[in-house]
Amino acid sequence: MKVAITGATGFVGSRLIQRLHGKGDQIVVLTRNTAFAQKVFPSEAFPNLEIVAYTPNVSGSWQSVIASCDGIVNLAGEPIAEGRWTPERKQEILNSRKLGTQKLVEAIANANPKPTVLVNASAIGYYGTSESATFDETSLSGNDFLAQVCQAWETEAIKVKDAGVRLVILRLGIVLGNGGALGKMIPPFKLFAGGPIGSGRQWFSWIHVDDLVNLILQALTKSEIEGVYNGTAPNPVRMADLSQTLGRVMNRPSWLPVPAFAIEALLGDGAIVVLEGQQVIPKRTVETGFEYKYPNLQSALTQILT
């Protein structure tokens, strides 16, 4: 295949590119920072990879490369858990997803020939937060800021169906691997200062990065895969259980909780990302026959940390 990827230099995107490269696929990296992308993917190590400069929310010549691709993977979006949610920051979070997807769909609609599939990221923030409810792909959306972002994101992606292109929306949970959210949780445990964040009762719906990459590859290659799928493992846990399991795998105590007010002081409204959660079940994902390498948190963390 020839696959174009946005968000390629990120935690998930770079892992996906390693897998595609290993399979011998051709890769087009759409990036705002070509110099950084060239450092991450040097041409001598990735001879089948092309780097194309683009401005995600602006039409331009970059859109012409879409016509040569078989599939598109859209992972781009401003980080949601880094810094306070000022009005400007919230607008950036929304626009990077809504407008970025809009311009990508515009490129697909104008392409000749067209790609056969768009795999578009979304997030389990779509469902809102709850300590008691269980959500699957058929559940209604929430009404908080992140839910509204996901709704707008998915609404733009759905328009690609008007061009006759297959659409797969993956609502991603917290992705675990060497980096990402886990990378921020490990240092306190190394210093014997690890513990649950906030009440510890909030749900933590997660997926191992390798399982997510396999899920994306399945979405790219299996024509019967279409619609919304939760990109989460089948066994979500509460934050307290995550902390205990992480401490056990690292052979460190997990007794020192991080109080909610400390996170709120740091992140403001953005603290909702770590202080509240949702129990998400990948019902449709499991029904496709997808086989998880790491269905349980203990096995996932053991693989990552050892």
What does the model show?
With 306 residues, the protein is α/β, with parallel strands linked by helices. It contains eleven helices and 13 strands. The chain has helices at residues 11-23, 34-40, 87-110, 145-158, 180-190, 209-221, 239-250, 260-267, 272-275, 283-287, 297-305, and strands at 2-6, 26-31, 49-53, 71-74, 117-123, 134-135, 166-172, 174-177, 203-204, 206-208, 227-231, 237-238, 279-280. Helix 1 crosses helix 6 (209-221), helix 3 (87-110) packs parallel to helix 4 (145-158) and helix 7 packs across helix 11. The longest helix is centred in the N-terminal third of the chain and has 24 residues, at 87-110. It is globular, with a radius of gyration of 19 Å. The two termini are 33 Å apart. The model has no long low-confidence stretch (mean pLDDT 94).
Radius of gyration: 19 Å
* Overall pLDDT score: 94
| Secondary structure: helix percent | 25-40%
Spatial arrangement of strands, main beta sheet: 3-2-1-4-5-7-11
The helix/strand series, from N terminus to C terminus, equals: EHEHEEHEEHEEHEEHEEHHHEHH
Name the assembly state. Answer: single chain
Strand content: 15-25%
Question: Low-confidence parts, pLDDT < 50 over ≥5 residues?
Answer: none
Individual helix count: 11
Distance between the termini: 33 Å
Name the structural class: alpha/beta
Number of strands: 13
Question: What is the approximate shape?
Answer: globular
Main sheet properties: 7 strands, parallel
